[in-house]
Amino acid sequence: MSTENSTESLKLRRGEVLRNARNQAGLSARKLADRINRQTAGADLTENAIYAYESGRVLLSRESAERIAHVLRLPLGSLMIGDPDFDPPLGHDPADAGGDTEGRSDAHVRDYDRPAGTDAPAADRRFRNDCADLVEPAQRVRDTADVLRRLLSEQRYVLKSPTTVVKVFELLAADVGRFEDLPAAAHVRLQPATRPYDRPLELADVVRAIRRTADRGYAYLEKQARAEGNCAPACRKLARKLGDQLRTLDDALGDVRRAAGSRRS
Question: How many domains does the chain have?
Answer without folding.
Answer: 2
